[in-house]
Design brief:
By secondary structure, the chain is α+β, with helices and mostly antiparallel strands. The chain is built from twelve helices and 23 strands.
């Protein structure tokens, strides 16, 4: 806060330093070798931001100044700027986090620090700086309200924030319902319910799936023969492995004209390319990574592809209609997630953490396959078939065994169109909800700005001025030093 802003402060307020209203104790510096599985928990920034659930411990005694208890006020000042109220058992504070011993209303200081750090982030936005030294932090100027007004400000902030919390909670419940809605659309799509009326209107016009699957069997064999001849091999010397007919006795009854088959019966599966760190950069082939796969849209996000400086064979370049599946995922729920490849202005390949399913027939559409593999029960089946060590992996063999309901090609087109339209409506609603949630964050910031400019609650002339509070704090600190 500068002098101009100070001059605008209400009567009874004071401009002071952060250091004058609290004591800020940095946490203990640990080495990785100090981390154990027994002892008091070590609270790191990751634990406060909830970006990590890993909790390391330390079995040896430490100075009391490093210990924190439930309700303590903490401020992270390096890499991540944030204010937190610690909740949990007695623990040891890691370095780059201050434990605050406050000399004023703790809740007032909590909200004041949120506002201060937000203004600091605004000033350094775009510079990449997320760090403030203890000296500069303690010398930073902040507005201080009279003690009684601090209580009124905290009460008003919490009242308004509670209203915002209730609104955001309602919006998040709506998002959960949208997830259910999306799955109900996919369920109806692949049970035949979504296109039942259309199917009734075109009864007798559609080629049944039995004929479609027979043609697919023929196309698959022809593809196998063509591959052998392309390699200069004599087809007569090789034995063709016939398609495995899936056991459908325990599967749902399909609409008339539909049929079941396995993914491996109409696709060729390949793992993506492997490369070194040195080959990854801004030169070479555009490459689809796992992070490009998780798109609400049925297609892969090709806006943010990296490049691999490596010669890529034509067979490892993606074609329109290829469907990719995540082969390896750090998060178990991410494995086997599918997205279809649409098109790109230049050749694109895919990394080794992805499996490509190249559809060998024009009669099964990539969007149809992608939507089916995004169904909740199908995702659960694929995830259950994956193995897990440090990351979760699914093999081509496990993926290829997936049994899929095949509708007539014309009906597939209808399913895709109807699903696209219904899911687009859900996406638009979801986008609006996200905008509303972001607006609530801006409203919180606006409330805090008003609060610490003295414009949120009425002023009481009978309140003891903040200058008197600062004098008392100073006297108390001098007593402690003696």
């Amino acid at each position: 806060m500068n002098k101009k802003e100070h001059d605008k402060l209400p009567q009874g307020w004071e401009l002071t330093t952060i250091g004058s209203i609290g004591k800020y104790i940095n946490g203990k510096a640990f080495k990785k070798s100090d981390w154990k599985k027994i002892g008091k928990p070590i609270i790191r920034i990751q634990n406060l931001t909830k970006s990590s659930t890993t909790l390391h411990r330390y079995p040896k005694p430490v100075e009391n100044k490093y210990l924190i208890h439930d309700g303590d006020l903490l401020i992270s000042w390096s890499a991540t700027l944030g204010v937190y109220v610690y909740r949990g058992e007695e623990a040891i504070l890691n370095q780059h986090i201050f434990k605050v011993q406050t000399f004023i209303n703790k809740n007032f200081l909590f909200y004041l620090m949120i506002a201060f750090l937000f203004s600091l982030k605004e000033k350094v936005h775009g510079t990449g700086m997320q760090h403030i030294t203890k000296g500069k932090f303690e010398q930073s100027k902040i507005p201080l309200a009279p003690e009684q007004e601090q209580i009124r400000i905290v009460n008003k902030i919490e009242e308004l924030f509670s209203q915002l919390d209730a609104g955001v909670e309602s919006l998040k419940r709506a998002q959960v319902n949208l997830k259910r809605y999306r799955q109900s659309v996919l369920q109806e799509a692949f049970s035949g319910e979504l296109t039942s009326e259309w199917r009734e209107q075109h009864q007798g016009e559609l080629e049944p799936a039995s004929k479609l699957l027979e043609r697919i069997r023929f196309e698959r064999r022809a593809h196998w023969q063509a591959e052998l001849r392309a390699k200069g091999k004599d087809v007569a010397k090789y034995k063709y492995q016939e398609q495995e007919v899936p056991d459908t006795s325990k599967l749902p009854v399909l609409p008339q004209g539909w049929g079941w088959t396995r993914l491996e019966n109409f696709t060729k599966l390949n793992n993506g390319i492997n490369f070194t760190k040195d080959q990854k950069g801004n030169i070479g082939f555009l490459t689809v990574d796992v992070l490009n796969m998780y798109n609400k849209n049925v297609y892969i996000d090709i806006k943010n592809l990296y490049r691999v400086n490596k010669k890529i064979k034509e067979e490892m370049q993606l074609k329109f209609g290829d469907v990719l599946f995540v082969r390896s995922s750090v998060k178990r729920e991410g494995v086997a997630y599918p997205s279809a490849f649409k098109k790109s202005r230049e050749p694109v390949t895919f990394c080794g953490f992805i499996i490509r399913a190249r559809i060998l027939t024009e009669n099964i559409l990539p969007e149809y396959l992608t939507y089916y593999a995004r169904k909740a029960n199908v995702r659960a089946e694929l995830i259950s078939n994956a193995s897990q060590v440090t990351i979760t992996n699914i093999t081509q063999s496990s993926l290829g065994k997936l049994i899929i309901p095949i509708a007539p090609t014309e009906e597939q087109k209808q399913i895709i169109n109807k699903t696209d339209n219904l899911l687009s409506l859900a996406d638009n609603i979801d986008n609006n909800i996200n905008i509303a949630i972001r607006r609530s964050d801006l409203t919180r910031q606006s409330i805090l700005k008003k609060a610490f400019r003295g414009k949120l609650v009425p002023h009481d002339p009978s309140d003891e001025p903040a200058s008197e509070l600062l004098k008392r704090i100073q006297k108390e600190r001098e007593k402690v030093k003696q």
